[in-house]
TrEMBL record, chain B:
Function per UniProt: Involved in beta-(1-->2)glucan export. Transmembrane domains (TMD) form a pore in the inner membrane and the ATP-binding domain (NBD) is responsible for energy generation.
GO MF annotations, alphabetized: ATP binding
Annotated ranges, domain ABC transporter: 7-264
Protein name: ATP-binding cassette domain-containing protein
Alphabetized SUPFAM superfamilies for the sequence: P-loop containing nucleoside triphosphate hydrolases
Domain of life: Bacteria
Pfam families in alphabetical order: ABC_tran, BCA_ABC_TP_C
């Protein structure tokens, strides 16, 4: 492989070959410097505690060679795909139009498939659980998409609202015995309230500063949950959270259960299927509201804010309320998802709401294409589903996963669905290239 | 209708640290007239604009706006977005500030934000899709279509604003400002970068905005052909102070203005040298 690639590039691009080789050589040099101590020399404590070390120059040489070859391959791919790795440069128009037609039917096809998942995989509990997990992240992604994708405000502490929602339901139901259907809106309202609370101090912040403060906010909520033992139960969390009921009818074996009322034999799968449709309904509600909001003045103001804040002010748009409503709306959906999480698990603890969750949801939004509903759903499927897919690879799972993400970002720097669909049109809705759409201030 | 001038600046001063960008500037812009603010680079014109449109808080002085119905606003006291929302002052920017990733039509819809927010019942009625909201949205689209036709961009309505040619973007920005329904339109160098034909079209557009829509215009402009052709009054600034005010004809012949634009010292020195020789 290493032999054939430089040869082919020598033939077609004599100028590029020197450049590629130079770059590969430099990469190899960096790798040599980096790995010489990490890989080249192995140190360990001996039996009596003395230092023992031995060299592994063979491993080092193969790694440096791999970096050299890999760099050449990456450069050749870049040469082949064009400077920005644009799909348009080498895919013929006919194929592209075919792809766009496929894209149009992808969303309805996915939706129909999702509706049928509990029917098709009724006896496969693992797939149903995975489906619930994916849908939870789809919903979180759609919620965060309002803040990051539409309003362009980078929020690294989204998990805080997820936590607020989960603890709202957990505490309200265990302390006051309120039912899930009463707590669900309450969880959303409380999360939205915290969204506004976060919004106030960060109104004047942009970019990195905004990211840091939102990150800190996420950590504050988690630390409060750990340390406020009297209310939250501290690290032990809240347990015995009631399972959801079908508007008051519990999904339990005994007398008043749903199975008994319908006259069918009880099965624990009923509850899983119910949870699946519950989170599907919640996610679709999020989607519907977001699509609706985009076509309303508030949604257009969010997008305008992402595009140019100064111009918004000149047009009489109140930046303060516009940003706060974006934070509140995103947080509300996070709160709904949190309440669902609590009722599904039956047990919540601060461990479930670490920064990693925020990062994962943000990665879903960025990978999907900021602002695109379909893209976010696909990204959640790829991230959560793909992560499970690689389970057989065990320790290499993270490696493969990281590599896949890097490749997608090279291939599509603006996410899976990078273009933007207009919210209103006169003659024809023309999708707007991602080059023109701004990423916002943070 | 109120007889007071639409805009009156009284002793407007703006300091940035030790630099006095605008020093005790007073002038008025008359109702339904085009007032041009000219001056050499760095004279403080854009600073005056930013004070009027709320992007800067002036160090001292009063900026008073009087609507046709006599309602008065002291703009140095208003929050930035209220200058467009309540005082009905719209502006364009020296370096165009459209929403590049949104279509031309969407740009004009965003400009009607405040009216549409009310019509959508602050999102609640809009979310439910009640008929009154749909009617309001349609009339907003009609208003946008009217202005797109007026500036000759109706064929580009569904194209991204960032994809439009430079001159088209300038006109779209004016259309967007007009969609806010302004009483006073402030234009910061609207003819910058336009060719002769586009400048002529711009002059025609601005004259029509003044006479057909009754909107008063305040503009900063370096293109003297545009200024002399369309302005009713001209205010000349240099080093943050007003050095002349009058009709375009008066300004053209004002020695102070000529001196400000062409410089004095060398000429005077040359004149003295000649006299001595």
């Amino acid at each position: 492989m290493s032999a054939s690639h430089p040869a082919s590039s020598n033939g077609s691009e004599p100028v590029g070959a020197a450049f590629i080789l130079k770059k590969a050589f430099l990469s190899a040099l960096v790798a040599l410097g980096l790995f010489s101590l990490m890989i080249g020399v192995r140190t360990e404590a001996g039996q009596s505690g003395q230092l023992e070390y031995w060299t592994r120059f063979g491993d080092l040489a193969s790694l440096v060679a791999a970096v050299f070859v890999g760099s050449i391959i990456v450069e050749l791919l870049r040469l082949w795909l064009g400077p920005r790795g644009g799909l348009g440069s080498f895919v013929p128009p006919s194929v592209q139009s075919g792809l766009s037609i496929a894209g149009r039917y992808l969303a309805p096809a996915l939706l129909i498939f999702t509706f049928l998942v509990p029917v098709i995989f009724y006896n496969q509990r693992y797939i149903l659980d995975l489906g619930i997990l994916v849908l939870t992240y789809v919903m979180l992604g759609w919620g965060l998409n309002v803040v990051v994708g539409l309003a362009g405000l980078l929020d690294l502490g989204y998990v805080a609202f997820y936590a607020v929602g989960a603890y709202s339901y957990g505490l309200l139901s265990t302390t006051f015995g309120l039912s899930f259907w009463i707590c669900l809106p309450l969880a959303g309202i409380l999360a939205a309230f915290w969204g506004v609370l976060l919004g106030f101090p960060v109104l004047r912040l942009r970019g990195d500063y905004l990211a840091i403060v939102t990150l800190a906010f996420g950590e504050i909520i988690r630390l409060v949950l750990i340390n406020w033992q009297d209310v939250t139960g501290g690290p032990n969390g809240v347990s015995g959270i009631p399972r959801p009921t079908l508007f008051g009818i519990p999904l339990t074996p005994g007398e008043g259960g749903l199975a008994a009322m319908l006259g069918i034999p009880f099965s624990p799968t009923h509850r899983i299927v119910f949870l699946f449709y519950l989170i599907l309904a919640l996610a679709l509600l999020t989607n519907w509201v977001t699509i609706r909001l985009r076509r309303l003045p508030i949604g257009r103001a969010w997008e305008a804010l992402r595009e140019d804040e100064v111009a918004c002010r000149a047009l009489g748009i109140n930046i303060t309320t516009t940003k706060l409503t974006a934070f509140a709306t995103g947080a509300m959906f996070g709160g709904f998802a949190g309440a669902f999480f609590a009722t599904r698990q039956g047990f919540i603890s601060p461990e479930s709401f670490t920064f990693q969750e925020s990062a994962l949801v943000l990665a879903i939004v960025v990978l999907g294409g900021m602002g695109s509903q379909l893209g976010v759903a696909l990204a959640a499927l790829a991230m959560i589903g793909g992560f499970e897919l690689f389970r057989s690879l065990e320790v290499y799972r993270m490696l493969v996963f990281g590599l896949a993400m890097v490749l997608i970002m090279i291939w599509r720097p603006r996410g899976i669905v990078g273009h933007r669909a207009p919210t209103v049109f006169l003659e024809k809705s023309k999708s707007i290239s991602s080059d023109l759409v701004k990423e916002g201030h943070g | 209708m109120s007889s007071a001038p639409i805009l009156a600046l009284e002793n407007l001063t703006m300091r940035f640290g030790g630099i006095v960008a605008v020093n005790a500037l007073s002038f008025t812009a008359q109702r339904k007239q085009i007032t041009a603010l000219i001056g050499p680079n760095g004279a403080g014109k854009t600073t005056v604009f930013n004070c009027i449109t709320g992007f800067y808080k002036p160090t001292s002085g009063i900026i008073r706006l009087t609507h046709d119905d006599g309602a008065q606003y002291e703009m140095q006291k208003l929050r930035d977005f209220n200058i467009s929302k309540q005082a009905k002052v719209a502006r364009t920017f020296q370096n165009i500030r459209l929403f590049p990733g949104m279509t031309a039509l969407e740009n004009l819809m965003v400009a009607q934000h405040n009216a549409l927010m009310r019509a959508s019942g602050f999102t609640v009625l809009g979310l439910l899709g009640v008929p009154s909201w749909r009617a309001a949205e349609q009339s907003a689209i009609d208003a946008a279509v009217f202005w797109l036709k007026r500036v000759g961009l109706i064929d580009r309505a569904d194209d991204a604003a960032g994809n439009l040619a430079y001159g088209d973007q300038r006109r779209l920005e004016i259309a967007r400002a007009m969609c806010t329904g302004p009483a006073l339109l402030c234009l910061d160098e609207p003819a910058a970068g336009l060719n002769a034909r586009e400048s002529a079209a711009l002059s025609e557009l601005l004259l029509s905005i003044r006479s057909d829509h009754g909107t008063s215009i305040l503009l900063i402009e370096h293109d003297m052909s545009v200024v002399m052709e369309i302005s009713d009054r001209v205010v000349v600034m240099d080093y943050g102070v007003k050095i002349a005010e009058g009709t375009p004809r008066e300004i053209r012949d004002d020695p102070k203005v000529i001196a400000a634009y062409l410089g004095t010292d060398e000429e005077e020195a040359a004149a003295v040298m000649e006299a001595e020789a």
